[in-house]
Amino acid sequence: MPIQTPLILLTGPLGSGKTTLLQHMVQSSALRLALLINEFGEFGIDGKLVKGKNLQIIELEGGCVCCSLMGEFEAALEEIIETATPEAIVVEATGVAEPDALVFDVSDLIPQIRMDGVITIMDADAMVAFPDVGHTIQVQIKAADLLLLNKSDLVSPHQQQSLQTRLRTLNSSAPIIPTTYCQVDPELLFGLVHHQKVQPAEYSHQPEYESFSYRPTGPLQRSCFERLVKELGPEIYRAKGFVPFPDRSYLFNYVNRRWTLEPLSEEETGLLVFIGSNIKPKEAQIRESLRACEISQVAPSPFTNAAS
Question: Could you give the dihedral angle defined by the CA atoms of residues 134, 140, 144 and 148, in that order, rounded to the nearest 10 degrees?
Answer without folding.
Answer: -70
